Amino acid sequence: MPAPRPYTLVAELSYQCPLHCPYCSNPVDIGGERYRTELETEHWTRVFHEARAMGVLQLALTGGEPMLRRDLDELVAAGREAGLYSTLVTAGTRFTRERAEQLKAAGLDHVQVSIQSPDAEENDRIGGIRSFDRKIAAARAARELGFPLTINCVLHRQNLDRIEEILALTEELGAQRLELANTQYYGWAVVNQNALIPTREQLERGEAAVQRFRERVGPRITVLWVLPDIYEDLPKPCMGGWGRTTVVIAPNGEALPCQAATTIPGLEFANVRDHSLEWIWNESDAFARFRGTDWMPEPCRSCPLGRQEEDFGGCRCQALRLTGDAAATDPVCRYSPHHDTVVAARDAAQTDEFVYRTMKRTRVAQRG
Amino acid sequence: MNRPRLVTGARLQYDDVRDEHLLLIPEGAVRLNATAAQVLELCDGERSADDIAAALSERYGGADVADDVRDLLGGMAQKGLVVDAGA
């Protein structure tokens, strides 16, 4: 069976970032030798054109902080020329009115600004840097220039009770979309699990608030709300299925089926410096390994709900982390013999202390 | 809806890889048939739904497309993809 056509290219332009969010999805070894050298402008430009020729429509310019790339305007223009719809995924601290104008002129389509909390002080504590005011200014600059705006807030135990404030701020800023992304436990979030896992009651209150907001506001603002796996008992189609819709390119040029795939031992990642994107997508081992349903073990193979083509076996990184085997059924599944590991994680010991994301030494800070 | 226009940031594009019309939106794409693509191309925030229907009717030898245009725009508005330029 030929590989399906991809829709989305996630371009992680740089792992440099002014923020230190303790749930960052970047690998924990971002400071290491592996990521010392970033791709050149020409590499990215070639990859954008190859991606479009394969069917990719959406380009996410992300990181780290993509605004730290000196050639960002050139890359935006290259994405537009290739025929891709581009989203800048930014922390906002450098997205000034002037930069916004330049990026608009270069052909940027959409801006996504992250906030860590709708409360300035808490936002700055979670992000590990004073940034709230600049984020709000960035969101306003995006709207003034006519960009569609998405606000993104990663949710966890220490900010979930502010969901009404997040919704109100989103509306006030004139955003078109709000991504309420409950923390997924890979990258730095694993390190900080005990400071992040919410209670079931927090999630239920959050979901009810989102529901009320949707009913009031209608299609004017799209709110994405995804429950964390830890309170589920059927897996999600992680990445829309392995090697099925999305390709991630790390700053060093490695092509990944998901942002966390480098945690899986035994997978080798081809580099766009050495191979065409088409070869990587169709032929490379990493993309073929868990694509489709042939690789599936039991109980997936004889799934009593027939969900093989619906959840594609769930998340490989989660399977690895909780069972020690990346090829096992995602233990979120109620039929997994390891489902008790997910249930047990709900009662993790609690702490308010964060281990902050850094490319240098490890820092720990106390709440308040 | 008096004067329909595409929601901010939406872009019509023909996907020559999949051979289909698309409406590209932030982090998504809506597949369109050829008729829907023609209707949306005319949603410039100036024309009314009746103007759009009349323009299409002229293109198709006087066929009555008013109901189809209205249904399509209604569905698109419900999804937040088309908004009223006057609102």
What key phrases describe this protein's structure?
heterodimer, A: about 375 residues, alpha/beta, two-stranded antiparallel sheet, 14 helices, about 15% strand, B: about 90 residues, three-stranded antiparallel β-sheet, globular
Structure characterization notes:
- The complex is a heterodimer of chains A (368) and B (87).
- Chain A is an alpha/beta fold and 368 residues long.
- In chain A, the strands form 2 sheets. A 9-stranded mixed sheet of chain A has the order 7-6-5-4-3-2-1-8-9, with helices on one face. A two-stranded antiparallel sheet of chain A has the order 10-11.
- In chain A, strand 2, helix 2 and strand 3 form a beta-alpha-beta unit.
- The longest helix of chain A has 18 residues.
- The C terminus of chain A is likely disordered.
- By secondary structure, chain B is of the alpha+beta class.
- Chain B contains 3 helices and 5 strands, in the order E-E-E-E-H-H-H-E.
- At the A-B interface, helix 1 of A face strand 2 and strand 3 of B.
Topology of helices and strands:
The complex is a heterodimer of chains A (368) and B (87).
Chain A: E1 8-14, H1 41-54, E2 58-63, H2 72-82, E3 85-90, H3 97-106, E4 110-115, H4 120-127, H5 132-144, E5 149-155, H6 163-172, E6 177-182, H7 188-191, H8 193-196, H9 200-217, E7 222-226, E8 246-249, E9 255-256, H10 277-283, H11 285-289, H12 308-311, H13 316-323, H14 339-345, E10 354-356, E11 363-365
Chain B: E1 4-6, E2 11-15, E3 20-25, E4 28-32, H1 34-41, H2 49-59, H3 66-78, E5 82-84
Antiparallel strand pairs in B: 1-5, 2-3, 3-4
Helix pairs in contact in B: 2-3
For the biggest β-sheet of chain A, the strand order reads 7-6-5-4-3-2-1-8-9
- Give the strand tally of chain B: 5
Structural category of chain A is alpha/beta
Query: What is the tally of helical segments of chain A?
Result: 14
Identify the strand order in the major beta sheet of chain B: 2-3-4
Q: Roughly what fraction of the amino acids of chain A lie in strands?
A: 5-15%
Using only CA atoms, what is the Rg of chain B? Answer: 13 Å
Give the largest interface.
Answer: A-B, 25 and 19 residues
As residue ranges, the low-confidence spans of chain B are none
Mean of all residue-level pLDDT scores of chain B = 94
Helix/strand order of chain A:
EHEHEHEHHEHEHHHEEEHHHHHEE
Amount of helix of chain A: 25-40%
Gyration radius of chain A, in Å: 20 Å
Number of strands of chain A: 11
What shape does the CA trace of chain B take? globular
* End-to-end distance of chain A: 55 Å
Regarding quaternary structure, what we see is: heterodimer
- How can the largest sheet of chain B be summarized? 3 strands, antiparallel
Mean of all residue-level pLDDT scores of chain A:
94
Q: How does the helix and strand content of chain B classify structurally? A: alpha+beta
